Amino acid sequence: MSMAASPVRFERRPVAVVMGPCGCGKSTVGAALGARFGVPFLDADDYHPPANVAKMSQGIPLDDDDRWPWLTALGEAMRDRAEDTGGVIAGCSALKRSYREHIARTIGLPVVFLLLDGSRETLWARMTARKDHYMPPSLLDSQLAALERPAADEPAVILSIEGELAPLLDEATAVLESGLP
């Protein structure tokens, strides 16, 4: 685990974004963390407008103009859920620092980002194995090219996906618990 910034101290249950490129396990890890903390899990894929889904389904990468409304919708949903339930976990690529900053500003609460980090080979294998997902493996390289790893001054932690799921979940849980009062 690589700590990129001091732990965030939450006044309530965690508000966190499990982030990374397609195939890294955002939905699996995010849903499991939501269950562990008793907070809702939001999948950013559910907040894409139909035009974004159609574009990605055709193998066309999104640009910033496509992403801003989607990131705003996710941030607003996270804020609303956190206000209702005391916390929320979301799975979102959040590839660029500007995207992470936009999400955090929209939420208006302390948020921690958990980057699920893995090799291109691991991500490719996972993407080609999954069924019924609109994101084709051909978009992996564009996501990796766009990825800006969190800087030291961001509230982010980098977690490796190269091992088993259970230790990864325990590590992510420990990170989020360390931010709780």
UniProtKB/TrEMBL annotation:
Which family is this protein grouped under? Belongs to the gluconokinase GntK/GntV family.
GO terms for MF: ATP binding; gluconokinase activity
The reply to whether Kinase figures as a keyword in the UniProt entry is yes
Among Pfam families, the record links this protein to: AAA_33
List, in alphabetical order, the GO biological process terms annotated in this UniProt record.
Answer: D-gluconate metabolic process
Q: In which pathway does it act?
A: Carbohydrate acid metabolism
Coiled coil regions, renumbered to chain: none
InterPro entries (alphabetical): P-loop_NTPase, Therm_gnt_kin
State the protein's name.
Gluconokinase
